[in-house]
Write a structure and sequence with these properties.
The chain has eight helices and eleven strands. The strands form two sheets. A nine-stranded mixed β-sheet has the order 3-2-1-4-5-8-9-10-11, sandwiched between helices. A two-stranded antiparallel ribbon has the order 6-7. The chain has one domain: Ribokinase (UDP-N-acetylmuramoyl-L-alanine:D-glutamate ligase, 3-Layer(aba) Sandwich). The chain has helices at residues 24-33, 64-73, 89-102, 127-137, 147-154, 165-178, 220-233, 238-258, and strands at residues 9-19, 37-48, 57-59, 80-83, 108-111, 116-117, 120-121, 142-143, 182-190, 193-200, 206-211. It is α/β, with parallel strands linked by helices. It is globular and about 50 Å long. A hairpin with an 8-residue loop joins strand 2 and strand 3. The structure holds 3-hydroxy-5-(hydroxymethyl)-2-methylisonicotinaldehyde.
């Protein structure tokens, strides 16, 4: 083990959004709080995320190969690799190369296939982009799509409510068959509950529900994926981790409503970070 590899590390390939609490701006403090060194690979620098009426984006695609090559020269290795918002198909290929170059058999790869929410793809994402995302999902050990992204990846038609156990099982099986042993489909509306559907290869799927709060905030998927990735690297049981992440997010949403924070600004997780259990 090289001299730079004495502490657990996660490489996070994601954008930096200066405002709007998403991507690296949330995953960095969370992963660090969970006692893991977080090493960002910035895919782009945004003034704020794209759900605001205006934003500035400085795409970093062309600079990534050299950035990453320097890590290779330093002989860095990672217990976890996670990917989030990727601005282009070229970036998806760069992440696949990164995994090929840096993942050891022990490395846990978490892919959050960020493409959309509430039945719609985010601005900037084409059909081809979504198709290419499937090829990245193949490299994942853990996949964390929301229900919109799960529909995109499996070719199912999105609906807001009324997912049957059979439909969810079929969708999760397709996702497991792409490659990841562990899949969690988040944000499934079920009456007054929000469900997360957890499918581990070879095990009967489980559903975790939390009471629905009638407001959705940007960036909660990034918080979810960060807790899942840090827990996986820390050896925490996957089901326990899913429950922990969902309860934490629910509490962050409650607090954000109390503090009257606009939904685009993301949740005020800073207020509650100290309550997050590390194991
Ligand atoms: O949280 C997802 C996300 C990440 N990064 C950027 C985004 C979004 C969602 O809109 O725009 C730049």
């Amino acid at each position: 083990m090289g001299e730079h590899n004495h502490q657990k590390k996660i490489a996070s390939i994601n954008d930096i959004s200066g405002f709007g609490r998403c991507s690296i701006t949330v995953s960095m403090p969370i992963v660090s709080y969970m006692k893991i060194q977080m090493c960002p690979v910035p895919t782009a620098i945004f003034s704020n995320h794209t759900a605001y009426p205006n934003y500035y984006c400085d795409d970093y695609t062309d600079r990534l190969p050299e950035y990453i090559d320097n890590w290779r020269k330093l002989d860095l290795n990672f217990q976890g690799i996670m990917s989030g918002y990727l601005g282009s198909e070229k970036q998806i290929e760069i992440v696949k190369d990164f995994i090929r170059n840096f993942a050891t058999p022990e490395t846990i790869v978490v892919v959050d296939p960020v493409m959309g929410d509430n039945g719609k793809t985010y601005i900037k994402f084409s059909q081809d982009h979504c198709e290419r995302m499937k090829t990245l999902a193949e490299s994942a050990d853990i996949l964390t799509p929301n229900i919109t992204e799960a529909c995109i990846l499996t070719g199912k038609k999105y609906k807001e409510e009324g997912w049957s156990a059979k439909e969810l099982k079929e969708m999760a099986m397709i996702l497991n068959d792409l490659g990841p042993d562990k899949v969690v489909i988040t944000g499934i509306r079920q009456g007054s509950y929000i469900a997360n559907y957890v499918s581990v290869r070879g095990v009967e799927p489980k559903v975790f529900r939390t009471q629905k709060i009638n407001r959705s905030y940007s960036g909660t998927g990034d918080i979810f994926a960060s807790i899942i990735a840090a827990d996986a690297v820390n050896g925490v049981d996957f089901y326990k981790s899913v429950r922990k992440a969902s309860v934490f997010i629910k509490r962050c949403i409650k607090k954000s409503i109390e503090m009257d924070i606009p939904k685009e600004d993301g949740v005020c997780f800073e207020e509650l970070l100290h309550t997050l259990k590390i194991n």
